[in-house]
Amino acid sequence: MRTHTNPLYGAARLIHLRGLHRGDQFAAVQRLDVCAAVYLATEGGPVPAVFFTDECASLELIEASDRAMAAIRAISAALDTEPCETNGQPDYIEHVSNWAATPPIGATQPPTTSEVIGCILRAADTHAEQTTTPHAA
C-alpha cells in the first residue's frame, strides 16, 4: 500500500471510513466535518472531545495547527467560490465546512460525500504537483 505525507489524502480516507458530518459542531458519533478530518489527518490521535461539544474551542484547536490550516487552505483554493472574511481575514474553515454542508445556489442538496472526497483528492493532487514540480530559475 502506498503511503502519503500529504494530510489531504488522509482526510479523504477518514471521511470515506467514518462518514461526513454536516451538522452542528465538528463531529458526531463517528462522522467528521471536513476540517475535523483534516485536523486528525495532520495531528493524529483520537477525535478531540471539543469537536463534539464546543465550536469555539474546536476552531481554536484547528487554527493552532499550521499543517491543518495549510491543508484547509488548499481545499478552499480548489472550490469555485471565495472564502468569506471574519475580522478582515479570509475564513477558510468556514468556507470549507459550509461548502460541504450547504446546498449551492440553485441546488437542493449539499455536495455528496463522494464529491467532497473528490474535491479533497483534487486539492491533494494539486498540492503534490506544486511541491514536486521544479520551479524555473
Please summarize the sheet with the most strands: 2 strands, antiparallel
Overall mean confidence score, pLDDT = 90
Radius of gyration based on Cα positions: 15 Å
Shape: globular
Oligomer, anyone? single chain
Total helix count? 7
One letter per element, helices H and strands E, the order comes to HEEHHHHEEHH
Termini gap: 35 Å
Strand order of the largest sheet: 1-2
Strand-residue proportion: 5-15%
Question: What helical percentage do the residues reach?
Answer: 55-70%
- Total number of strands: 4
SS-based class? mainly alpha
Give start-end ranges of low-pLDDT stretches. none
Topology summary:
Blueprint: H1 7-18, E1 27-28, E2 31-32, H2 34-43, H3 50-53, H4 55-63, H5 66-78, E3 85-86, E4 89-90, H6 92-101, H7 113-132
Helix pairs in contact: 1-2, 1-7, 2-5, 5-6, 5-7
Describe it.
There is one protein chain. The model has no long low-confidence stretch (mean pLDDT 90). The longest helix is centred in the last third of the chain and has 20 residues, at 113-132. 57% of the residues lie in helices and 6% in strands. By secondary structure, it is mostly helical. It contains seven helices and four strands. It has a two-stranded antiparallel sheet. It has a two-stranded antiparallel ribbon with strand order 3-4.
Quick structural gist:
With 137 residues, this protein is mainly α. The chain has helices at 7-18, 34-43, 50-53, 55-63, 66-78, 92-101, 113-132; strands at 27-28, 31-32, 85-86, 89-90.
